[in-house]
Amino acid sequence: MGSQSEDRREQGKVAEGSLARLAKGPAAKYVGFALLLAWHYALWFVPHAFVQTELLDERVTVSWLLNLGATVLFLFLIALLLGRKRHLSSYRWLAWAAPALTTAATLALCLAPFSFTAPGVAYALSFFLGATEAVMWILWGERYACVKANFSIKHIGTVFGFTLLACVGTTLLLPPVAATAFVALLPLASGGLLVLARRDGTCSFPALLPKHAAGGGFKSMAVVCAISFVASFASYFLAAVIPWEVLPTEVSSFTFGILGGAVLMLAIAGICIASKDKVNIFKLYPWLLVFEIVAFSLFLADKALYFPSFVAAVGISSIFEILLIMYFGILMSKGYSTPAMA
């Protein structure tokens, strides 16, 4: 019996060691954050993630907007409270508390019969999810700052593309309750990888540049944000004006839009891997704008082309989000801002 126990402990250590190596590999270290992004897309873009109501029910739409607004609000509040010297990862219990609370709130929002019967409950849960999601975003950002992640397009593009395809695709294929359970487990998986990755003890953050030296970086941030805002607004506007009822996949078209974005991200990563030159993020922006023009052209050309236009619009908006994550990650690693502010 004692020998069997020792063997099991050894097997457990080997498995844990393998997961730890996975959590900090050159490309695989991005899996944890990709799972968090996949959770958001699977929750709000797959029709049967909500067992109690339809995806395009007004109450779900309001819940999604509240979730987005709360995430932004808490990101700013936490960054302001932390300032330039403190870090959220100092509170080590958050690495397991935030994922656990995110999972519990996701299950309550999607499965509880009373969640949308009394919309206030759904709105409160969505707002709460914004807070836990913001905490997880910052914790992952601080982790990447400590390990000096370079946010390479070929690494993060490949990982994000495959993770979104796998997670969102699996959610689409699973029956309703199983799909909800799968989505709810994604934050736990993300948090588990974060806890494992942090066991290497690496906690040295990049030295922050003086405020006067970082001024140029903030100007660049403002320009990139403005371009991304206008382009993303146009993408969501196009998706909003195309009547989903006439699309062949109806409400599932939103899911296929995210899957289309994942495929496009993989294509970009593939081009970067095949190319001998290091591809700059800024070089991708004009191409995304070209794709967006193509999407509008398809919409204006013929009603039969509404579906590819819709998929392109939703997919391009998700690509802008991933590129912004990469851009701010690079500025963070160079000391232009704290991980929380980035």
Question: What does this molecule look like?
Answer:
Helices cover 73% and strands 0% of the residues. With 342 residues, the protein is mainly alpha-helical. It has one domain: Growth Hormone, Chain: A, CATH 1.20.1250. Helix 4 packs antiparallel against helix 5, helix 6 (153-173) runs antiparallel to helix 7 (176-197) and helix 10 runs antiparallel to helix 11. The termini are far apart. The mean pLDDT is 85.
Features:
11 helices, mainly alpha, 342 residues, Growth Hormone, Chain: A
- Following the backbone from N to C, one meets helices and strands in this order, namely HHHHHHHHHHH
Count the strands?
0
Round the mean pLDDT to the nearest integer and report it.
85
Q: Can you tell me the CATH topology? A: Growth Hormone, Chain: A
CATH architecture: Up-down Bundle
Summarize the structure.
The protein has eleven helices and no strands. By secondary structure, it is mostly helical.
Topology:
Blueprint: H1 2-23, H2 31-45, H3 58-82, H4 94-111, H5 119-146, H6 153-173, H7 176-197, H8 215-241, H9 253-274, H10 281-301, H11 306-333
